[in-house]
Amino acid sequence: QLQLVESGGGLVQPGGSLRLSCAASGFTLDYYAIGWFRQAPGKEREGVSCISSSDGSTYYADSVKGRFTISRDNAKNTVYLQMNSLKPEDTAVYYCAAGSLYGIRREEYDYWGQGTQVTVSS
């Protein structure tokens, strides 16, 4: 069974950091582009960052550029999203997804995790 599981979410104060993990089971992440998406209450799911399977190219939404870093550890079959300088507007459920195409559109991804809640609040 193909599965993605996110972890690492939680409650953090503004300016703090979290590292989200996306672990795969049932398939190898090496061959997939991985995207991180988030969905805040009442808003559409938006792409945050993605990393390619081939050359490690990365993309960041303007709202997180310079604060978030995506990386992959193929040996652990895991992708990470390091989030620094967190802001209240980063509060959302964060999802990872795997797809055969590198991009930031939801339609490009075939497999999705269940999400992990990130809350930034004092």
The amount of helix comes to: under 10%
Give the C-alpha Rg: 13 Å
SSE topology string: EEEEEEEEEEE
In DSSP terms (H or I, runs of 4 or more residues), the helix count works out at 0
Count of individual beta strands: 11
Cα(first) to Cα(last) distance is 40 Å
Parts with pLDDT < 50 across at least 5 consecutive residues: none
Q: Determine the mean pLDDT.
A: 95
Characterize the largest beta sheet: strand count, sense, and whether it forms a barrel.
7 strands, mixed
Q: What coarse outline follows from CA principal-axis ratios?
A: globular
Instruction: Quote the beta fraction.
Output: over 45%
Structural class: mainly beta
Note the quaternary state here: single chain
Itemize the secondary structure elements and their pairings.
Elements lengths: L2 E5 L2 E3 L5 E8 L7 E7 L6 E6 L6 E3 L7 E6 L4 E6 L8 E8 L11 E2 L3 E5 L2
Describe this structure in words.
With 122 residues, the protein is mainly β. The chain has no helices and eleven strands.
Give a quick precis of the structure:
Helices cover 0% and strands 48% of the residues. The chain has strands at residues 3-7, 10-12, 18-25, 33-39, 46-51, 58-60, 68-73, 78-83, 92-99, 111-112, 116-120.
